[in-house]
Amino acid sequence: MTKSWPDTADGDVFRRLEANGFDFGEPCWIDFNVDFETSTPPTRAIDTLTAAYPNALIQSEEDGERCYLLVKFFDRLSYEFVVQLQDELSKLMIPLGGICESWGVLS
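Below the sequence we write its predicted C-alpha cells.
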C-alpha cells in the first residue's frame, strides 16, 4: 500500500522507509536529535525535557564535534507524530538555545 506524504524532507524519509519495506504498523524506537548552539547542552534543557516527556529516554550524545540531546520515544511511526514532536521539542528548546530538526529509526 503506497501512501502519499507531503513533499518535504520528512516526507522523503517516509517514502524511503516505505520503499525499504519498513513496517509502519509496529511500534519502534524513534530518535529525535536536539541540537544546541553551544558545544554542551544546558542541564536545564535535560531537566525541561524530562519534565515534559517523563516516558521518553533522554541522553546526551557526542558525534565527535558537537553534543546534542537524543530523545527517544517508543511508538508507531507516523508522519504526524514526527512533525508534531519536532515542533514541540523545538518550542521547548529554542529558549535554551536548542532546536529539533532531525529524527530517525532503525530500519
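The chain is about 35% helix and 30% strand.
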